[in-house]
């Protein structure tokens, strides 16, 4: 039931070896990779690309629906006005996990790096109760857009196919800006939302953890994982990540955790109302991370009450240079990134580009594979799947009935509670709808070769890199690819949860927390005891 090669799960019967070894080192390279390497290499030169143009500006952090702060950009660009307060729209549901008593939850907002052209025509949100709904001129399916009252199955399939083709074409036709062009952009910057957990006890060598989420999910999906992590760190005995061997030494001290939300997801969609364009580039999400670590974190104090709703912004590199320090030294934080799926791709690209900003990273089922997983020849299944997704329900109680679906039936109860409380918002029609519109998820999935760019950057990661993988490697395009993937970084280790699928943190938050605990405990001796 548990991860990697650790001893058997406490609930397993005596003598039953429940834990497989992690992926062994691959002996033979993937034959398919040689065919795609040239394409991926060519694409890596576009690491500053913006789907519809993005410039280098700040990123908005917003705590899981509490307060917010502002940050700026890599270059001096005029700041856009931040929301005066965060949208209040979480419906009544079972209580979601809160931070341990030693940690305080605060909410913030900050300006983002990407700058996109305005929509082709104005698309205002509908105001109803506490939650504005979002629509997009190019799509009828999804949040906020009127769909035909009556349509046959054939008509629906035809409509969705048209919207899928429009979504794919929008990304294909979007210009890729070089950095100097992006810096001259005059469009409004976008924002990202974030939640911050601040430890009441700050240690000089304490860790700052930054998390990123999967496509179609929210920053709150990490709450149950970290709520379970802190009691585990208080345990007397540590285990080595990747082997499960006993590990001496004190548990790591976590000063703060930041849960970031992508611009096209959840609360960030509300913060960016009327500003989201017709396409999206995954590289921008990597740049948001770099901008946040370098230019936002240095301006945020240790105390939770220091920061207002809008996060301050400082050019971290400039401040550090004035003090005679490198940008990394000016941060005064040990940053550990933890990313899932799409968020793992962003984290890998960010860490490969700026290894000086990260102490270590943990990638959970990262979408960094050498394949065109959403290729048009295969019908763009991920884009179509997002557009087909049900997005509205008459009531919260009705939405709760999806618990019996094959997907949700595997989720841990706290994770499903978070789906009810944070993935759904009041709809203009009076019911409930997805906080992340289906068109926004479809846009994200329509990036053609971003997974390959993530794959290509893995050997460039110089810091300790941990992988937490599932037993079902369908999303990694197979066992062989997954095995090759986890050994591409020079200093990598891995663990697996055999009875989990790609949605590891939704299905196995306790096991994920235990794996993160071992990962953090192992960092001080990462290279001293090589994995067998």
TrEMBL record:
Residues in AB hydrolase-1 domain copies: 217-514
Pfam family, one: Abhydrolase_6
Matches recorded under SUPFAM superfamilies: alpha/beta-Hydrolases (SSF53474)
Biased amino acid composition, Basic residues: 105-114
Composition-biased stretches (Low complexity): 75-93
Disordered, as annotated region: 1-156
Membrane-crossing segments per the record: none
Signal peptide: none
Polar residues compositional bias, start-end: 29-43
Protein name: AB hydrolase-1 domain-containing protein
